[in-house]
Amino acid sequence: MNEKxxxxxxxxxxxxxxxxxxxxxxxxxxxxxDFRSVDGLYNQQYPYPPETxxxxxxxxxxxxxxxxxxxxxxxxxxxRPNAAHWKLAELERAGKLSAVITQNIxxxxxxxxxxxxxxxxxxxxxxxxxxCRRFYDLKFVLRSQGVPRCPxxxxxxxxxxxLYEEPxxxxxxxAALLAIARADLLLxxxxxxxxxxxxxxxxxxQGRHLVLINKSPTPYDKNADLVIAGPIGAILxxxxx
Length: 241
Description:
This protein is of the alpha/beta class. It has 10 helices and 9 strands.
């Protein structure tokens, strides 16, 4: 164990209230591409930019095109949790980690067993009829053709994910902010901290140690007490609970 890993282990061992804040890099080790990586979705060629397709305006105007892209590039039903997801769930069961705050929409934290998860950008596992508000799971969307419609009323079913031009859920944001403000150790991993307003939450942290784990530098590296460069699954996987 190197010096940085040893310090991370010491802080986790000594911390009774850890909060984890994560982004796309947490899920890349599960085979889900990072939108903003070199080979990610934002560097591929499509008739429209992903930011356009994943906007509220585009969904309203062209739901067929939206769902063609959404099924092809946003859904990974066969993805499984990796070492980072499993370790965070283990820390929660041990009573050390109080919350996971994620920008991801894949539900892998819950699949690994984490209970207190704040999904800032929603989840592909929740889908709602826009007309009657009936709930539908991911299987319903995957089995549907074209634009999924509610069998009960015929309304268009929309994923419960935050699209461009839509606000983040205020209740989720407030709960995440409170968790960060109360934490004594904040672990940030797999995120460039470039997506706002989510990234702005870490400004409310007032605890003892701020740790950044990411493959590439972030704008907040200079504010961290510890910066570890590398894959988050491998790094968290070495932690003893």
